[in-house]
C-alpha cells in the first residue's frame, strides 16, 4: 500500500512538495480552499498529480498518513483542527523535504533582514564554488529542489510558520538574526509564543552544529539565559568585542572562529546601514564555517546590492527619490527604513494590521515624515497613532492613487517611501505584487 500524502495549499511550497512526494512513491492529493493559479495547475497536470480547488474533500484529507500544510494556513482553519482531532500528522514543507536530502543545510530566520541575509549567504557560498541552492521562504520551493537531488548545500530562509511545522528538521548552521513582534495575530497576540517559534530552528541541533545570533538583541539574550542549547554558539555584535564570533572594531568587521581571524572594512560593504552590517556579519560567519576563502567573502560583500522590495531605489523624478520597501511587513522593518531616510519623507503605509504597535516609530516619524499616505482597507490605527504629529494624512485605495498623491505632495529633495509595516493581503496578492505595482505606478508618472 502506498502511503497517502495530502497537501493543503497549492502555492510554491505545496506544489513543490507534491512533486517530491510523487518521486518518493507517495499517493499524493493536493487540496486548495481557494483557486489554484494556472501555472501551478499545469505543473500538477504535467506530473499527473490529483488535485482539487475551491474547497476541501474532508474524508479524503482525513484519511491521509501525513499532511503538509502550507505556511499561510493558520492552525485555526477548521480542516487543520479536524486533522489534529483525528491525530493525523501535520508538518511543513521544510520538515517533509529535509528527510530526503543529505545536503548541508544553513537555516536563517529572524523578524527582519532574513531575505537579505539568506540571499547574501547564498551569493558568498556560490561565489566560493559550493554547489548550493536557495529556498524556503524565498524563490523556488525547497522540496522541488530536493526532488532534483543535485545540490550539496541549501541556504533556507525560514519563517516562524515554517518552523512551527517541524519535528526532526535540523540545520547544520542556524542563524537567528533578530527578534521583534510580528505575526502576533497567529500567536494569540503573545510575543513569547512567536519567540518560541523562532527558536525552534535550534530545537534538534547537536554539539556538532552551530548557532549564529545577534548578541545585541535583548530578547534573544534573555531566551538564551533561560534555555540551555546544545549547538556551538557564534554571536555577532556591533557593541562589544567577542572572544568567538563577529564584532565591530573601529571601522572593520572582525570574525573570529576557532583560531582564524578575518577582517573586512565596513565602508566597502555593498549594502549600507547598521542592520546590513549585522546581516553581513551573519553571512560571513556562515561562509567562514564552510571554509570559503577570505578574498571571496570580501568580494561577495562588496558586490552585493540588496534584494528586490527591500529599500530598493526605483527612480528619481524631479529630484524626488522613490524607494520600494514593500518587504517591510512589520513595524520593526519600517523602523529600519525610516531610520535610513536622510531627506523629508512622504511615507506610504498600511495594509493588514498584525497587531502592530506604532509607538516605536513616533520619534522617527516626528523627525523625518512630512506626509503619510494610508494604503489599506482599515487605516484607523495609523491615523490615531500619527494624526497629531503629521499635518498631511491621506487615505487611498489603490497603489496608483497612492503614487499620484505622493507625486503631488513631494517637493524637490524629498523621498517617497513605500514601507507598509503591514501584510499585503487586503489589496494585493503578496508583498511582491505590492512592490511591483508601486514600481509600475512610479514608472508611469
UniProtKB/TrEMBL annotation:
Entry coiled-coil feature ranges: none
Pfam families (alphabetical): Mur_ligase_C (PF02875), Mur_ligase_M (PF08245), MurD_N (PF21377)
Gene Ontology cellular-component annotations: cytoplasm
Keyword flag Cell division: yes
Job description of the protein: Cell wall formation. Catalyzes the addition of glutamate to the nucleotide precursor UDP-N-acetylmuramoyl-L-alanine (UMA).
NCBIfam families: murD
Protein name: UDP-N-acetylmuramoylalanine--D-glutamate ligase
Source species of the chain: Aequorivita xiaoshiensis
Amino acid at each position: 500500500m502506498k502511503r497517502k500524502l495530502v497537501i493543503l495549499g497549492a502555492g510554491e511550497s505545496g506544489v513543490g512538495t507534491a512533486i517530491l512526494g510523487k518521486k518518493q512513491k507517495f499517493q499524493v492529493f493536493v487540496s486548495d480552499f481557494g483557486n489554484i493559479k494556472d501555472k501551478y495547475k499545469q505543473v500538477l497536470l504535467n506530473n499527473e498529480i490529483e488535485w482539487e480547488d475551491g474547497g476541501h474533500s474532508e474524508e479524503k484529507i482525513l484519511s491521509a498518513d501525513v499532511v503538509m500544510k502550507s505556511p499561510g494556513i493558520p492552525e485555526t482553519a477548521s480542516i487543520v483542527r479536524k486533522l489534529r482531532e483525528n491525530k493525523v500528522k501535520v508538518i511543513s514543507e521544510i520538515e517533509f523535504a529535509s528527510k530526503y536530502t543529505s545536503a548541508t543545510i544553513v537555516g536563517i530566520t529572524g523578524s527582519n533582514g532574513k531575505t537579505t541575509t539568506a540571499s547574501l549567504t547564498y551569493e558568498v557560498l556560490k561565489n566560493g564554488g559550493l554547489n548550493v541552492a536557495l529556498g524556503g521562504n524565498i524563490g523556488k520551493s525547497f522540496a522541488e529542489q530536493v526532488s532534483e537531488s543535485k545540490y550539496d548545500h541549501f541556504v533556507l530562509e525560514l519563517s516562524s510558520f515554517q518552523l512551527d511545522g517541524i519535528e526532526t528538521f535540523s540545520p547544520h548552521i542556524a542563524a537567528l538574526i533578530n527578534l521583534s513582534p510580528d505575526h502576533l495575530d497567529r500567536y494569540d497576540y503573545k510575543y513569547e509564543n512567536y519567540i518560541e517559534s523562532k527558536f525552534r530552528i535550534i530545537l534538534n541541533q547537536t554539539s556538532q552544529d552551530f548557532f549564529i545570533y545577534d548578541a545585541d538583541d535583548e530578547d534573544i539574550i534573555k531566551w538564551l539565559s533561560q534555555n540551555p542549547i546544545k549547538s556551538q554558539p557564534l554571536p555577532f555584535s556591533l557593541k562589544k568585542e567577542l572572544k568567538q564570533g563577529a564584532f565591530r572594531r573601529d571601522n572593520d568587521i572582525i570574525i573570529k572562529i576557532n583560531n582564524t581571524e578575518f577582517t573586512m572594512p565596513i565602508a566597502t560593504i555593498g549594502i549600507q546601514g547598521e542592520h546590513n552590517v549585522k546581516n553581513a556579519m551573519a553571512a560571513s560567519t556562515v561562509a567562514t564555517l564552510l571554509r570559503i576563502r577570505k578574498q571571496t567573502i570580501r568580494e561577495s560583500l562588496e558586490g552585493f546590492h540588496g534584494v528586490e522590495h527591500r529599500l530598493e531605489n526605483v527612480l528619481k523624478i524631479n529630484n524626488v527619490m522613490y524607494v520600494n520597501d514593500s518587504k517591510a511587513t512589520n513595524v520593526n522593518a519600517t523602523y529600519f527604513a525610516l531610520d535610513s531616510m536622510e531627506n523629508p519623507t512622504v511615507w506610504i503605509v498600511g495594509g493588514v494590521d498584525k497587531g502592530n504597535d506604532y509607538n516605536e516609530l513616533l520619534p522617527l516619524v516626528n523627525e523625518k515624515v512630512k506626509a503619510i499616505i494610508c494604503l489599506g482597507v482599515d487605516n484607523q490605527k495609523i491615523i490615531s497613532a500619527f494624526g497629531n504629529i503629521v499635518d498631511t494624512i491621506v487615505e487611498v485605495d489603490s497603489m496608483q492613487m497612492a503614487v499620484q498623491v505622493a507625486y503631488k505632495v513631494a517637493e524637490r529633495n524629498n523621498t517617497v517611501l513605500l514601507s507598509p509595516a503591514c501584510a499585503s493581503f487586503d489589496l494585493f496578492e503578496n508583498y511582491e505584487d505590492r512592490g511591483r505595482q508601486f514600481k509600475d505606478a512610479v514608472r508611469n508618472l
